[in-house]
């Protein structure tokens, strides 16, 4: 197994008994860091200190990975223009914050006979949203509700797509 000493320097590849002797000599513990590596990596360190560092690293990673919340915006199939614009602003606000948006068109009574208006409304919302979006869930009926989930296009994907578009553009032929 590959052994790293308490200062972070590589000791080399040692057998298990040799590594344990080095750890006892330093009055520390031998902790396996990467068991799946070939050869497995171990470190001579105080186990309590190691656990503390791991918890700290996991906490930091958890803070960075902000889970996107799903925010719900409700429409009716025959919504007024002012109400529609207000809700569209909210959708843009949620997507701008990096949250997902669940768009719900709620049908009442005889409106169920006019399902196409709900699909048209969701299509209109998609066309008028300011940011590029991914459709996480296509529009589908759940009881009397037509539901669709959208999320903002991640910045990394957008950059990669732009790069591929630039690469795929042909250079103009210079014929004189």
Question: Could you describe the 3D structure shown?
Answer:
With 176 residues, the chain is of the alpha/beta class. It folds into two domains: 2-63, Ubiquitin-like (UB roll); 70-153, Translation Initiation Factor IF3. Helices cover 41% and strands 28% of the residues. The chain contains five helices and eight strands. Strands 2-1-4-3 form a four-stranded mixed beta sheet. A hairpin with a 5-residue loop joins strand 1 (2-4) and strand 2 (10-13). The longest helix is centred in the first third of the chain and has 18 residues, at 47-64. It starts with a strand and ends in an 8-residue tail after the last helix. 13% of the residues are buried. Mean pLDDT is 84; it is low at 158-171.
């Amino acid at each position: 197994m590959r052994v790293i000493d308490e200062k972070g320097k590589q000791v080399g590849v040692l057998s298990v008994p040799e590594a344990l002797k080095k750890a006892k000599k330093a009055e520390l513990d031998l902790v396996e860091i990467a068991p799946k590596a070939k050869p497995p990596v171990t470190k001579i360190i105080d186990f309590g200190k190691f656990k503390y560092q791991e918890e700290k690293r996991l906490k930091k990673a958890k803070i960075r990975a902000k889970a996107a919340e799903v925010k719900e915006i409700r429409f009716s199939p025959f919504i007024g223009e002012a109400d529609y614009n207000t809700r569209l602003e909210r959708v843009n606000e949620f997507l701008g914050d990096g949250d997902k948006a669940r768009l719900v068109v709620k049908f009442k009574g005889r409106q169920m006979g006019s399902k196409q208006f709900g699909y048209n409304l969701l299509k209109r919302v998609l066309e008028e949203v300011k940011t590029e979006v991914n459709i996480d869930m296509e529009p589908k009926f759940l009881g009397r509700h037509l539901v669709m989930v959208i999320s903002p296009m991640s910045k990394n994907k957008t950059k990669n797509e732009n790069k591929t578009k630039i690469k795929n553009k042909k250079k103009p032929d210079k014929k004189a």
